[in-house]
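Forwarding the complex inputs:
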Amino acid sequence: MEKPKPVTQAAKILALAAVVLLVCVPFLVILSTSLASQREVIANGGWVLWPTDPTLKAYEDILDGGIVTHALGVSAGVTVIGTLLSLACTVTLAYALSRPGVFGGRPVLLLVLFTFLFPPGMIPSFLLVKELGLLDSYASLVLPVLVNVFNLVVLRGFFQGIPEELYEAARLDGAGDWRVLWSVVLPLSKAALAVVGLFYAVAYWNSWFYASLYLESDHWPLQQVLRTYVVAGSGITDTTTGEATVNAPQTVQMAVLVIATVPILLVYPFLQKYFTKGVLTGAIKS
Amino acid sequence: MAALLRERAGSTSATPSRPGPTRARTKRKGFHGRRRQTLFLLMLPGLVYFLVFHYGALAGNVIAFKDYVPFDGIWGSPWVGLGNFQRMFEDGAFWDATLNTLWIALLQIVFYFPVPLALALLLHTLTWSTVRRFVQSVAYLPHFISWVIVVALFQQVLGDTGLVNGYLGDAGLSTVDIIGNPDAFQPLVVAQVIWKDAGWGTIIFLAALSQVDEQQYEAAALDGAGPWRRFWHVTLPAIRPVVVLLLIMRLGDILSVGFEQMLLQRDAVGPETAEIIDTFVYYQGIVGGDYGFAAAAGLFKGVVGALLVYAANKVAHRLGEQGVYK
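Prediction (whole assembly, two chains):
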């Protein structure tokens, strides 16, 4: 093929540079503002693009016990436990539904896929959680969203792609279904498990709406605290002491924002690594 | 057929080697076959989850036909027939929310939908693969950021005291009033969706583009086709099925426009421009305590939405494309 014209090439590079800047600059602004002193932020009218005198004071303030520290612990706990539970239930269900001839396999598959077409709705789900007595428990953040249909379909598709000969070989060696899953299927599915696990982890970490529905404010995870501090711009009342925090200063708000973003940035390279393996594109296409 | 034979061969050869009671061996077809019992048990936790939290909640939709009294619970509350639906159809606020939903969905189809496609085409023609991968990595990232953070970032950049207005002010220009301005809200919502998901949206188009045989381009070039004609006759036919499918799916899902995104910002701009069906359900039910009425609105949306997805799928098949399900 002939070389593209330099003008078109330059236009392309310019457009892609614009994309990169549009994504990165907002993150740079919040990071810089969180590292600046409150005085500098006020002097500059609310934000800083490059702090002249960087300080970690905002981070020290919020990690020194108190609402944000507690919220960070809640988010981390819910994310870790939720991801493990979700993965366990998704893997077992996907595995059972990927093997031929399991008792009730076909109806269960249809039952599961139907929920994709017809979600139950916010109000009935809320009342169900209430009637089950899960209000103001951390279980309410995990149990109602335990298995995601999309993740289930991804894993089932992946399990079905494992050559039948391997199942046979394992069976010849006398392995039962449980053993086949543990020693054959799971080790072969590391990429798919990583993607699905990370998807669950990101979803749990990012979740705030259920917390706002089900939990008292002193049990809130980080995203819901962030929502109240930054998006709504108000303080949070501690229900046990009745003490209300005042509006957090801008640097502190931005520090919370950074802390809420960092875990995503940390797992992102791992997620990224598996995109290329076609786990997802294969699943999306099917 | 081959799979069936393999399956049969596998089970006959495996059975004798497996220890266990004779019953399990002879009654392989039924529930008591040992391997199926294990599989069934493995299926149970997930199945129980779907039965309780999806079908249990789905059954809870009966309150749409009741006047929900918290003390009496879902089953004890009195029936009101279609009363909630009648109220809903007579409620101007419900129709305003429906119109807002449709209008924002339409804005997204017109202004968001082409962006991932354009970006994918741009990335696809980029020959420098390191740059390409870098841009892809950066562009996918916002998809994984929560809506809380996205809305907060937009406030920091476009708000009264934000980055853009700071520069405009320094340059002596008039500042822009975007955040908290009802007139600017709907375009803002579309811009946020573009920022968050346009990069991620390229994945499916890039996958389709990568299926195109490089030789087709070379053959077209040899036949004297310029870049534009190659695009028209080689690239476009390759991605057309995906584009049509995604468009139809979006039309089927037209009653949903980012509940979390809207809920986060509704209070700042007011319900006139920011109320959608989902937030209507939230404010009537969770905030207002009118559960039966809110559930009726939610059920209405669920039923119409499912019918739309079903219809969209039919249309996709009619057009000779693969649907979401068969």
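The radius of gyration of chain A is 24 Å.
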